[in-house]
Amino acid sequence: MDTAARSYLDHNATSPVRPEVAAAVARALSLPGNPSSIHAEGRAARHALQEARARLAVLVGAAPERVVFTSGGTEAANAVLSGALRRQGCPAPTRLMISATEHACVAAGHRFPEAAVEVLPVDAGGTLRLDALAARLDACRGEAVLISVHAANNETGVVQPLAEIVRLARAHGRALVHSDAVQAVGKIPLSLDALGLDALTLSGHKFAAPKGVGALVLAEGVTLETAFLRGGGQEARLRCGTENLSGIVGMGEAAEIACTALNAEAVRLAGLRDALEARVRALAPDAVVFGAGAARLPNTLSFAVPGLEAATALIALDLAGVAVSSGSACASGKVARSPVLAAMGVSPALAAGALRVSLGWNSGDADLRRFLEGFERVVSSLYQRRGQAA
Asked: Known catalytic residue: 330?
């Protein structure tokens, strides 16, 4: 594929690996030792592993020893939601509370009995209703609870009020808080310790690291009662098995780059996103931007034009050399109705046209121009058909 003639605007699905990260991966592949071996080669591999752990810890505001490497965000979230998460001196959680817009790795990845799971509503902007959370916590006073709310939504980019969620959990006294931070890490400032979270989970390929590597980050005094992969004792005996050294080193490199440029890149991407949103509204005055009134990731624009089917637009844009999405990339390539938009009260007809443009480190003005050229042709055709029908 001639990528020079295309614009990739689907970074929320996966962000292309940075050249510096690819170089770091290549260097790690040249290390022959197993990080668990005590000879010189093993020690060199262990040093590279621990350096990557320290780099990632800085990005997420946690102590390096609290970072457990995994194969990605789904594995990490599944481990947290197995029921094994514990804070020292507290009982095991018997009830799970999640938002109605959680990713499938949370909504379908937990192991709590169905009767013990409460799905909390969001408002029309996609933000968790804190009053609903407070009411449910009051009703469960004395019961150990695990709250799992994502830091930012993968489809709309809506950012959740984690600090307020943690405050309500601490007032309850027996509630743990986990955040699926896959979409937020590397895009906006996020600190486990500063927020007071008990656990967060992440995936490297969302911030330009290789696919197939992620992490579970635990607060001090919080652990998993049982290992989620048992074996040789790696990763503090919580996730056993030889570590994916090259992927982890790549994630560490990506974490350091993201950390260094975090604020400047957020400003740059927000500027591009806002300019793109303004042009979309100019070309399609009846376009509806999802989450427009809420705090959003700086790189994400999710919208629909009434009467425009997502499948039709995606094909036309792909042929025009532009890669975007209809929402989550975790539906086997299918364009299906979004449960996220349904939870926000979006009508099925409008949700069927949802498009997601997500920018990243290699996005620029030329990519926006290519998208807008293709989009203008699509909406012009739509409006022409409307005129003929009238």
From this structure: yes
Cβ burial of 114 (10 Å; 0-12, 13-18, 19+) is exposed
Phi, psi of 189 (to 5 degrees): -60, 135
Q: Residues 6 or more apart from 333 whose CB is under 8 A from it?
A: none
pLDDT tens-digit series, residues 315-338: 999 999 999 999 655 554 555 679
β-pairing, 222-224 vs 85-87, is antiparallel
Mean pLDDT over residues 199-203, rounded?
98
Q: Which residues contact 335 (CB under 8 A, 6 or more apart)?
A: 310, 311, 314, 326
Under 8 Å between Cβ of 269 and 70: no
For residue 356, the one-letter residue type is R
Q: How many Cα atoms are found within 13 Å in the side-chain-facing hemisphere of 70? A: 25
CA atoms within 13 A on the CB side of 12: 30
What number of CA atoms fall less than 13 Å from residue 18's CA on the CB side? 22
Structure tokens at 168: 């309500």
Beta strands in the chain (DSSP E): 7-8, 67-70, 85-87, 95-99, 117-120, 145-148, 175-180, 199-203, 214-218, 222-224, 288-289, 300-304, 322-323, 355-358
- Residue range 59-87, pLDDT digits in tens: 999 999 999 999 999 999 999 999 899 99
pLDDT tens for 167-179 read 999 999 999 999 9
Structure tokens at 221: 């005094």
Q: Which of 85, 67, 350, 292 is nearest to 193 (CA)?
A: 67
Helix ranges (H only) for 320-390 are 339-343, 348-351, 365-389
Residue 336, pLDDT score: 63
SS3 196: coil
Q: What is the mean pLDDT of residues 370-378?
A: 97
- pTM of the entire predicted model: 0.94
